[in-house]
Specification:
Layout: H1 2-39, E1 43-46, H2 47-58, E2 72-76, E3 83-86, H3 88-105, E4 111-119, E5 122-128, H4 163-173, E6 177-184, E7 190-200
Parallel strand pairs: 2-4
Antiparallel strand pairs: 1-3, 4-5, 5-7, 6-7
Length: about 200
């Protein structure tokens, strides 16, 4: 029994250390971000390449993170180039976070949709899930620092509440915008959440 108790205690300590390490890392990154973003060099790139790489990685169950459900990722609008102005590493960080969140909130066996559209002088990327949606009175809070709205079954403390705040900082530094809304059917029932990112198209 003592060995069992010791193993259980060590597991709890290890989990807490991982949680603290993640929190410290996220806080450190957030504190440096403003200065780093001003030094980033933006260039023309095809956002499909970043999204395809992330989707391929997250379609492999073995590479998924804790909390990411086993569902499919569908694509729409990937048949033509989608050129934007950006820094590839930063944009990969944003969409990694958004797709990971969508997988976390989706139902087991559900589908996350990643869609690309051209809207006048912007490329619009939407990530949709089939989860419970976002409480209406919290839609304006989810991009605040340290705010976290996680699935009930997910391990406590594995998210710092900085992911969406950092995503917003990055997108706005690119001259773009990001917002969230709920997906609804014709009767007004919430069918999931939708995150929308708009990025500038290069001027030729």
């Amino acid at each position: 029994k003592n060995e069992t108790d010791r193993a259980g205690l060590l597991s709890i300590i290890q989990h807490d250390l991982q949680r603290m390490d993640r929190l410290i890392s996220d806080i450190s990154q957030a504190s440096r971000l403003d200065a780093e973003l001003t030094r980033d060099i933006l260039e023309a790139l095809d956002i499909r390449h970043i999204l395809n790489s992330l989707i391929a990685s997250k379609s492999d169950p073995q590479s998924r993170r804790e909390g990411e459900r086993h569902g499919a990722i569908a694509c729409s609008g990937f048949d033509t180039p989608a050129m934007v102005i950006g820094q590839s590493g930063r944009l990969a960080q944003v969409f990694d976070n958004l797709i990971s969140n969508a997988l976390s909130f989706s139902q087991d066996g559900g589908t996350v949709l990643v869609k690309i559209e051209t809207i006048i002088d912007k490329i619009r990327i939407t990530i949709e899930d089939d989860g419970p949606g976002i409480p209406e009175n919290r839609l304006h809070k989810i991009f605040d620092r340290f705010y976290s709205e996680r699935p009930v079954a997910e391990s406590f403390g594995m998210h710092s509440g900085l992911g969406l705040s950092i995503a917003k900082q990055i997108i706005e530094s690119h001259g773009g915008s990001i917002y969230a809304e709920n997906r609804r059917d014709d009767a007004g029932k919430v069918m999931g959440a939708r995150f929308v990112v708009k990025l500038r198209i290069p001027v030729i």
